Amino acid sequence: MGEKIKVGMVSLGCPKNQCDAELMLAKIADAGFKIVNEAGLADVVIINTCGFIQSAKEEAIEEIMEAISRKNDGINKKIIVTGCLAERYQQQMDEEFPEIDGVLGIAKNDDIVKTIRAVMENKRVISFGDKLCHNMEGKRLLSTLPHYAYLRIADGCSNCCSYCAIPMIRGKMRSRTMENIVAEAKHLAKQGVKELILVAQDVTAYGIDLYKKYALPQLLDQLCEIKGIKWIRLLYCYPDKVTDELIETIKKQDKVLNYIDLPIQHCDKEILKAMNRPGDENSLRELFTRLRQEIPGIVLRTTLITGFPGETEEQFQAMAEFVDEIKFERLGCFAYSAEDDTPAAEFPYQVDEAERERRAEIITNEQEIRMADYYAGFVGNAYEVVCEGFDRYSDMYFGRSMHFAPEIDGMIYFTSTKETRPVIGDFVEVKITDVLENNLLGEQV
């Protein structure tokens, strides 16, 4: 029976959620089920949901409704919902979607095979456990291109920003042991992975629970010793936890890319205080100035929230001026989303939704202008690029330099006249010749 069942996985949201999906996929494959890439071809469709902000919830519900429609048409036989939305809205998932055959909380991901078998026997499974027992270890079936992988070093979050539901959904921060992370990284390297992208809700807090100190520098030192790993990229760092030791490690370790993702959310001291985040405009300016001085060519990525409760027009303008001054190489901006059961949702002086969106659009439009200037600086220079495929419509190869994180930062498209054409995972030298919107154009040299 098991070999005949086709299982499809739709994973939404962040790379941390993707790691959960890959752990489940490995178990599904090992159990003998056939994994299909399209939900419309599956007997059992698993929707691994995100529930972080309103737009993510809407996307997840839309995906669930599409699966229900396919089920009603006899295309999908069974539907299983996992991930953050399932964990966050346990009762609603059970009561409001009777067409769903299985709902698993994050602590029950390891039961995915048992759940598939149960729903195929027409049993309805609604199962939740202690989220602090959520398993981060085990074999993964990678869903990324073969030369890069996300490496989750912790789960949950103890920062408790007033707007954020993650501590409610995922629980307090829990670091994986250094030994287990390094062992997984070695296994990934043997599989051909060349770029490790370290992820957690806050990678800079790594180790504080296990080792009573911020241990990211020590972890990076060990990962840099692994043969076959060429690039190590840091996502989701917190400004107040960027220590002297971490800066020194990024400087000295060639494998650790000069690319750091530091979501600041705002720069106004009062807004940051209301967000339950430390720092102010001066401390942030000092950090970014120092990073650029100590690590020439560093790519600074950040995230901002506009329209947080109580944000005045003056505070918004101050943030717009601040980001124009800093000139982040990468920037994402989101209108504030009032999330159920978070402190900020109950704050007075909620900003009108249209105004939140207007402010986010202003920041985004100004960033696009800055990005045009930033990209223009690439033209005429050559960079090491990892090939990620061939686009037959443009008749060009495409890939990324260290300045581009996968899936979020655009691409470099390039031609090649070499006898030996590049294949996926090859590192080649590309001279940039032009800019096309959020992408660069070039030629292999």
Description:
By secondary structure, the protein is an alpha/beta fold. The protein folds into four domains: 2-133, Rossmann fold, CATH 3.40.50; 144-231 and 241-248, Transcription Regulator spoIIAA (2-Layer Sandwich), CATH 3.30.750.210; 262-374, 2-Layer Sandwich (Transcription Regulator spoIIAA), CATH 3.30.750; 382-444, OB fold (Dihydrolipoamide Acetyltransferase, E2P). It is 34% helix and 22% strand. It has 14 helices and 19 strands. The protein has helices at residues 15-30, 54-72, 84-88, 90-96, 112-120, 166-170, 178-190, 208-211, 216-223, 244-252, 269-274, 281-294, 313-326, 353-376, and strands at 6-11, 34-36, 44-49, 78-83, 102-104, 125-127, 148-152, 154-155, 174-175, 195-199, 231-234, 256-261, 299-306, 330-335, 382-391, 396-400, 412-415, 427-436, 439-444. The protein has a six-stranded parallel beta sheet with strand order 2-1-3-4-5-6, sandwiched between helices. It has a six-stranded parallel beta sheet with strand order 7-10-11-12-13-14. Strand 3 (44-49), helix 2 (54-72) and strand 4 form a beta-alpha-beta unit. Helix 9 packs parallel to helix 10 (244-252). The radius of gyration is 22 Å and the shape is globular. The chain starts with 5 loop residues before the first strand and ends with a strand. The mean pLDDT is 95.
